[in-house]
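Input sequence (347 aa), recorded before submission:
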Amino acid sequence: MSTALRVAILGASGYTGAELVRLLVRHPDVRLVALTAERQAGKPLAEVFPHLGGYELPDLVKIDQVDWDGVDFVFCALPHGTTQEVIASLPPRLKVVDLSADFRLHDVETYATWYGHAHKAPELQAEAVYGLVEANRAAVKAARLVANPGCYPTASQLPLLPLLRQGLIQADDIIIDAKSGVSGAGRDAKQANLYGEVAEGVHAYGVAGHRHAPEIEQGVSEAAGKPVVLNFTPHLMPMSRGIHASIYVKLAPGKTSDDLRAALVDAYKGETFVRVLPAGVAPQTRHVKGSNHCLIGVFPDRVPGRAILLSVIDNLVKGASGQAIQNMNLMMGYPEDRGLEQAPLFP
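Predicted structure, token format:
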């Protein structure tokens, strides 16, 4: 292996692919050697994303044109349902972080139920590690294939998992009311994502059937030590970036919102990217824009015995590409925050 880690990004013409490039061009241990985009093959990346011009990047190519002998590490930012066969075809020596949902669900039958087709690489699913770093650090370090978590599951699980592990909240009464920026829907032209369809209004989607529900339930069930079914409703907001999750929970007997906040402060002390805010302070998506940070707030509910958790991330960074690089850093033995040191952009 050369001094620099030779990295390929599959699906570099989408938003998460572009974010990987934006962050990795400043990573001192990485050299981008291959960028793929089936429909944009042959073009310079700057023609597709002008903000990434001037960095001496390779031109876009098709996946079958990549010389894998010159690659050490792969980020797969392809659409859901297309990644399993692609990763199965790669040389087994390559380490991979997959940003799609194709390897996030441990059970292949659950995957088939929610994604509408059989899993195409069940043998790889058995080795895939779920890459929520703060909850699964040791396994990520030893992994060859990491399934990068979804944006909503990242924002939802970070505040919930420590509380469920300690029995501070009741697992059978969790409501997640989440909002996302439009970039979460991807870059393909879709009528539902046109300016006139999303501006000056808010709407729920995937009600009682969003594919991130089983991913969240998988994590909270493991933390609670029993099967958990929760209420999860996402909403589309007229903004480019951001996830805001309002999570309504029922306290365990004798516990208070102060107990929840103290437990979260303790769980995330020393963590670079997760910060629990002072009592009474509500996190805002504008305060994590462009960063790999997650901010968490805890409030007592007006309803006795209940509390409100607020969690915000940038859906394209901590909810996708930034977390993917955090996973890569762990897998390759680099400092976890390398290439991710940038502060949030405000205003």
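Checked by second reader. The chain has two domains: 5-149+318-332, 152-315.
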